[in-house]
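Let's sit down with a protein and look at its sequence and fold side by side. We need material for that, and I hope you will provide a protein of your own picking. Once you have written the record down, we can walk along the chain together.

***
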Amino acid sequence: MDTFSMITGTTLNRYQLDIPSCTASLDVEEFSGAEKLSELYYYTITFTSAEKNIDAAQLLSKPAMLTMGGGALQQLADCKRVHGVITTFRRVNRSEDQSTYQITLQPFLFLLDKQFRSHRFFVNKSVPEVVEQVLQEHHLHDWEYEFNLKQHYPRREQINQYQESDLAFIQRLLAEVGIFYFFTLQEEAQSEVVHFADAQRALMFDKTLPVNSPSGMSDSGAESIWGLNITHNVVEANVTTRDYNPRDAQSVLQSATADMTRGNGEGLTYGEVYHYKLRHRERGDKIDPQTETANFYARLDHERFLAHQTLITASSTAAWLAPAQVLTVTDSLPSTLPAPVQDPLLITGTGFTASRREALRVTLLAVPYSETLCWRPPLLPRPKVTGTMTARVTSAKANDIYAWQDASGLYRVKFDADREDKGQGQESMPVRLAKPYGGDVYGFHFPLIQGTEVAIAFHEGDPDRPYIAHALHDSRHVDPVTEKNSTRNVIRTPANNKLRMEDKRGEEHIKLSTEYGGKTQLNLGHNVDASRKLRGEGFELRTDSWGGIRAGKGIFITADSQTEAQGKVLDMAAVHSLLTQAVSQMESLSQAASAAKAQLLQYEQQQALMEEKLLALKQAVLLMSAPEGIALASGSHLQAVASENIYMTAGQNVELGAKKNITLAASEKISIFTETEGIEAIVAKGDLISQAQSGNIEVIAKQNISLTSTTEGMTFTAAKTLTFTCAGGAYIRLSGGNIELGCPGDIMMKQSKLLYSGPASMQSNIPELPDSGPQSMSFMLLDALGNAAPSTMKVSLFDSKSKEQIWSSAFNDGGSGCFEPPESENFHAIIGDDKWTSLFSYNDEHDIEDETDDDLDFDEHGPQYDGELNEQDKE
């Protein structure tokens, strides 16, 4: 169409309103409008119509077009078209001929403000991706919006929409990263297009207007600009920003001081701005920072401040003026314009007013255009989350019975408010669990399992910074403590590992248990079964599997009373008294044995054991005490082993009994001594055998010795000589087949008969005694930590007198093996050959448990002599 009048038909109005959904004829009376960078434009249009009652349904939310004409009235040119949707409609007045109406025309994006969401969660998306998703959900075609971005924007772990409309949400996101937007008209579709940009290259250049103030009421139809006003403001001099990333806690996420004037603003700017905002995870390069880093945000913030340093306003008749245009104002030479407007200007806002009576007037707001400084939209406040949100712990594995965490121990959750389907285990960013105590690989952490209800809180109320504040029980996940057991304090894991503390007065108890091995429990106090019936009092340590009690410095087990734990842990007064009494008894018996020339008791060693080891657990010993008795019972065997001595002392009796045999064996000697009552050896059945296989048997009595066979005879046998003597000098000797009787006095024979015959003899039954042979011995070589000598180490033994080698071999697990000792009591041992290696010099800075060969110190030595070994060193 060549002229605007061809569009308007019969009217000569410069301004045309076209609403396809309305059939009535409309005539624009007046309008006003405003357009700004990163804001929605709006036009308030008043029009008249012969249709006196236009239905609102024909207008609201319907598309409309406002066309502004320019030039001579008879040949109007199409200067500007504004497309949008009608957002408000009202009837102003009515006359006999017509009605007056008023509408507001705004872009389609305005309708996004009517879609409100209290909660929405975007995971693993960038800001442009979120904005595009929202636009597409509102059915915008890809040609109705355009992203012209210079920077690459990373995907954020989570972006939350909270108590915001869709419009407010995307406006806030865009402003945070410095993306501005503006509108243009798509010529072919005659519809608005929204452009998103972050750099100057997206602006519209090559726009020019001359300075020319209108004369009177006429501008002669020429487009011009006038009324240029400049406002200068003092703005902030620089910006520093800082953040903290718990996943990179050692890094300092503080930006360099950002001054986007490069020092040229000195005297015109003032003040340092410091932001601590939870929004960046990296510091970024100082000169060319990556997006959404500390240095990026610092530079962005300063560009926002500088956008208000110089503000220019003006008036014009050019209807085509629009935000995002770079305008050059021309003037006659030499120019009389102020310096700031002699260079190109970036239009940030325009205003339009016109009516049937008044020509179009355009006002504009601009800032100096710069190739190094980009205009940035002002920050919009982030909503603050008050309180907490409920969510469920999730897992990538369905019906997972274990916690699903990442390498840092973080969880994923599914918000109850989230109604969108997301990948299982990907419903949120990784979130931390708040705990009452924590530190470097220590702390307080009970893993949360899939389905557990949790309360999500937010750092400083920031909806994009969630964390798990605490866990909650619900009807599906019942609390372990309810009205049924309200006196109990319980910690229970999903596998029924449990710590239970009962506070019911008179029934207090503690139970620590696990299900492994059937049941393994430590029960303290008033112990009950599953039905709460008493099963015992005190304490119980039990398991259906193996058990072990180990204490490296010693164990003291006692039944001696210590009321209400008032005494010391190692209070041994009672056991000390018993041990001292036992040593005293042994000393008394030893003195009696000494008087009787019997084997002495080693009571000194028993006293040394008590004083140097047992009392106060000076060494690694096991000490047991009970005032009323100790019993050991076994269904099979009972073994007592000591590498040195076993001492048994009783204040009264020591009784040994066996259903079958009692065997006593000693490598050297068995000594039995009684002080007052004697020794009884009685065999109810069987034989009483006494042998000295390589020595003598002595039977001595101060009074009588009586040998009696009650039903059979007695036989005395000797391999060489059998001699009977008496204190008077008489004797009988049987030797070599002869009988010799001798006495200093008379031989008296009383008999009824005396019979003589020829020679006779009786064969003697001399039993053959076993030869026990020499005894063998061995020894162990250990370091101070108890580690055995290596098997490659050799040992050679030499008689200390003859210097002859007795035995030579390598160690086996620290043992020398058995060998026959020399006749002399002492011998020499040479350990090693030419050289041997000690593996027992540990570095004190390492735990022995963690030692490897790389951590050991090696020392080489020549042949080593351990000196003479006495009898106590022999095994």
In short: Residues 690 and 696 are 11 Å apart (CA to CA). The mean pLDDT is 87. The radius of gyration is 55 Å. The domain at 384-478 is CATH 2.40.50.230 (OB fold (Dihydrolipoamide Acetyltransferase, E2P)).
